Amino acid sequence: MDTESTYSGYSYYSSHSKKSHRPGERTRERHKSPRNKDGRGSEKSVTIQAPTGEPLLANDSARTEEVQDDNWGETTTAITGTSEHSISQEDIARISKDMEDSVGLDCKRYLGLTVASFLGLLVFLTPVAFILLPPILWREELEPCGTICEGLFISVSFKLLILLIGTWALFFRKQRADVPRVFVFRALLLVLIFLFVVSYWLFYGVRILDSRDRNYQGIVQYAVSLVDALLFIHYLAIILLELRQLQPMFTLQVVRSTDGESRFYSLGHLSIQRAALVVLENYYKDFTIYNPNLLTASKFRAAKHMAGLKVYNVDGPSNNATGQSRAMIAAAARRRDSSHNELYYEEAEHERRVKKRRARLVVAVEEAFLHIQRLQAEEQQKAPGEVMEPREAAQAIFPSMARALQRYLRATRQQHFHSMESILQHLACCITNGMTPKAFLERYLSAGPTLQYDKERWLSTQWRLISDEAVTNGLRDGIVFVLKCLDFSLVVNVKKIPFIVLSEEFIDPKSHKFVLRLQSETSV
Amino acid sequence: MSYIPGQQVTAIVQRVEIHKLCRGEILILGFSIGGGIDQHHSQNPFSEDTTDKGIYVTRVSEGGPAEISGLQIGDKIMQLNCWDMTMVTHDQARKRLTKRSEEVVRLLVTAVSAEGCAAVHQSPGE
């Protein structure tokens, strides 16, 4: 009876992919994993068969999980960061989500767009129609109106031009995000414009068309008033959609659930979904990239601490589950073990190793960059050696630093973020722009924001907004909503910016006087 | 005399007895004190080193009861009516000296000039 012990750390986290008990052998990585020839740095794993172990309480299925942990803690050597199984499941989840998302929301997007553009067209053609219809329909009966009408024609045309440019500037922008619900203000504005235009048409149809009004100047003035009102609605739109949220009213605290990295952003009056958009846009440039490999250790430490404690019921059979778990928690708390010691020494050792590898890497890169010399324009004909393009130069010096770089990336667990192709490209770019070795290395020495890496790491289509309140509600003090991506989530806490009472105090510049502090002397 | 924490203080002291003079409502002694553990040592011209935060006599008024009794400027007050004065704040010293219920104060003072004499040793505050 083989017990498959252990979860790999990655799949422990991605619990949403509903697997609880995996058949087949587990793959685990040893610390000295074989080097990859393609330099991709992915963890190839060595298959280890878990030793057989018998659960002590064989009839209790819940216990087998702990027994597995127990065996794992005593007999295995290493923990996987990612296993092949979890990646493949992940990919399937992602692909299916991509497919369903793209079909559904595209329709919604285009629907909104068509409604708005239809309304816009209607709005623009209305004044023109008001002006043109009377001459077309009853030209003989119209009173001639000379210069005044021509002046009004000019003003109508220019106002329409201004309206056109304004609408183009304000509304015709590439939509940058897909949000779950309709924007309330935009919908309100569209409804307002629609009602407005419809009421104007009603009046026009009833009072002017039916009765064949003769006063052409009045009709033209009516059209001018329509255009004026449209300009004012455009002003209203600017205020509601753009200006109102410029003044900061709230501060949002965004905390990433996996490692606690947090940032603060200031926003104005926005709806929850728009605030979520702002948070996400800033997430991609402010937060360091999510690295699941850095998170594996803590859960297993805790598991080891609790493992090995078994509850025996001396007084006879009873099913007091909460009592048992409480007893276990209390016993684990009282237990003297040296896990804190292990943590301390492990971290110190890791630090030391990383620093050593970093030193080797820096030296290797500096030496490599010494080999490259930029040719000035006039020297290009009489070059001592072979003249190379930046890409070839990068390929020439890359092997001398490749090994040190890979070992450093392995030590800091970033190796799957950087492929050899991306490293070469970056190196070529640095050589072209004359950067120093330190500038080249900066990308690898510290984890950067998510935008710095591949598009596949972005997962920008996978975000979900979870909120207690309706997402079109405005922000309020104390609201908490969650933005969930595949493996981690961002918890956003909204706080109101405090009302500051600032008062003025006048201190006369001449009143700054000083005296030496003598000892206090009291006479008695 | 430097003060080492935890060690006994050895000093040569002199007993001075001052009778307070009644001037109107208040009783005066006729001298000024400086120092105390809440004061800064550098402001006391009479203290010898940084650890000495005792109460020193900084001024003796002419013809006052203190001068009559033989108190001199620069004396360090070690005890006052059997209360220790080597480790008190300035305010505590002032209060003890100006108690309205006491008409006579008995001081144990020590002066730098008396260091050299081989005379009575006293370790107060046992």
Automatic annotation (TrEMBL), chain A:
<keyword id="KW-1003">Cell membrane</keyword>
<dbReference type="InterPro" id="IPR009539">
    <property type="entry name" value="VANGL"/>
</dbReference>
<dbReference type="Pfam" id="PF06638">
    <property type="entry name" value="Strabismus"/>
</dbReference>
<feature type="region of interest" description="Disordered">
    <location>
        <begin position="1"/>
        <end position="73"/>
    </location>
</feature>
<dbReference type="GO" id="GO:0043473">
    <property type="term" value="P:pigmentation"/>
</dbReference>
<feature type="transmembrane region" description="Helical">
    <location>
        <begin position="219"/>
        <end position="241"/>
    </location>
</feature>
<keyword id="KW-0472">Membrane</keyword>
<feature type="transmembrane region" description="Helical">
    <location>
        <begin position="110"/>
        <end position="132"/>
    </location>
</feature>
<keyword id="KW-1133">Transmembrane helix</keyword>
<feature type="transmembrane region" description="Helical">
    <location>
        <begin position="183"/>
        <end position="204"/>
    </location>
</feature>
<feature type="compositionally biased region" description="Low complexity">
    <location>
        <begin position="1"/>
        <end position="15"/>
    </location>
</feature>
<feature type="transmembrane region" description="Helical">
    <location>
        <begin position="152"/>
        <end position="171"/>
    </location>
</feature>
<dbReference type="GO" id="GO:0005576">
    <property type="term" value="C:extracellular region"/>
</dbReference>
<keyword id="KW-0812">Transmembrane</keyword>
<comment type="similarity">
    <text>Belongs to the Vang family.</text>
</comment>
<protein>
    <recommendedName>
        <fullName>Vang-like protein</fullName>
    </recommendedName>
</protein>
<dbReference type="GO" id="GO:0016328">
    <property type="term" value="C:lateral plasma membrane"/>
</dbReference>
<dbReference type="GO" id="GO:0120197">
    <property type="term" value="P:mucociliary clearance"/>
</dbReference>
TrEMBL record, chain B:
<dbReference type="InterPro" id="IPR001478">
    <property type="entry name" value="PDZ"/>
</dbReference>
<dbReference type="GO" id="GO:0016323">
    <property type="term" value="C:basolateral plasma membrane"/>
</dbReference>
<dbReference type="GO" id="GO:0045197">
    <property type="term" value="P:establishment or maintenance of epithelial cell apical/basal polarity"/>
</dbReference>
<dbReference type="GO" id="GO:0098968">
    <property type="term" value="P:neurotransmitter receptor transport postsynaptic membrane to endosome"/>
</dbReference>
<keyword id="KW-0539">Nucleus</keyword>
<dbReference type="GO" id="GO:0016055">
    <property type="term" value="P:Wnt signaling pathway"/>
</dbReference>
<dbReference type="GO" id="GO:0014069">
    <property type="term" value="C:postsynaptic density"/>
</dbReference>
<dbReference type="GO" id="GO:0043113">
    <property type="term" value="P:receptor clustering"/>
</dbReference>
<keyword id="KW-0007">Acetylation</keyword>
<dbReference type="GO" id="GO:0005737">
    <property type="term" value="C:cytoplasm"/>
</dbReference>
<feature type="domain" description="PDZ">
    <location>
        <begin position="15"/>
        <end position="104"/>
    </location>
</feature>
<dbReference type="GO" id="GO:0098609">
    <property type="term" value="P:cell-cell adhesion"/>
</dbReference>
<protein>
    <recommendedName>
        <fullName>Tax1-binding protein 3</fullName>
    </recommendedName>
</protein>
<dbReference type="GO" id="GO:0019901">
    <property type="term" value="F:protein kinase binding"/>
</dbReference>
<dbReference type="GO" id="GO:0045211">
    <property type="term" value="C:postsynaptic membrane"/>
</dbReference>
<dbReference type="Pfam" id="PF00595">
    <property type="entry name" value="PDZ"/>
</dbReference>
<keyword id="KW-1003">Cell membrane</keyword>
<dbReference type="GO" id="GO:0005634">
    <property type="term" value="C:nucleus"/>
</dbReference>
<keyword id="KW-0963">Cytoplasm</keyword>
<dbReference type="GO" id="GO:0098887">
    <property type="term" value="P:neurotransmitter receptor transport, endosome to postsynaptic membrane"/>
</dbReference>
<dbReference type="GO" id="GO:0005912">
    <property type="term" value="C:adherens junction"/>
</dbReference>
<keyword id="KW-0472">Membrane</keyword>
